[in-house]
Amino acid sequence: MDKIFIKRSVTVKTILTKKFKEETEEEFLREIALIDDQILQTESRIRQRQDTVLSNELSHKLEQLVFLKQELVAHHDDFDRLPLEEEVVTGMLDNYFELKIGDNLYDKVKDAEIIVRDGIIEKIKL
Predict the structure, then answer these.
(1) Per DSSP, what are the bridge partners of residue 116?
(2) 20-68 residue pLDDT tens
(3) Rounded CA separation 96/107 (Å)
(4) What is the value of pTM for the model shown?
(5) 5, 24, 108, 119: which is deepest, by most CB within 10 A?
(6) Strand 120-125 to strand 112-117: parallel, antiparallel, or no bridges (unpaired)?
């Protein structure tokens, strides 16, 4: 066997544009609103319950939701401070490539990146 196919991870980076920041802002706000709704529903269910075990479970769920909201708000604030044209990691993909006898292994398996602007691929770094 003179060749083999290997899998490697490819980092997807997005260049922050005004459009991308606006779309991401809307997504953050939607997610925060959904969590707020779940918090209100859970608080309401806690007030209605007399069963201590169920109330404890609901209280635990409420704590998790509040923590999740705090994390999401912190990520939103961090994202909001990023300048336009900054590259941020937005995902990972798998890529298969061929290795054959005589190839430089280190050159072949180095980090690969795809750079995207508003959904359009600008660069592929292999």
Answers:
(1) 14, 121
(2) 999 999 999 999 999 999 999 998 888 887 767 777 888 899 999 999 9
(3) 15
(4) 0.73
(5) 24
(6) antiparallel
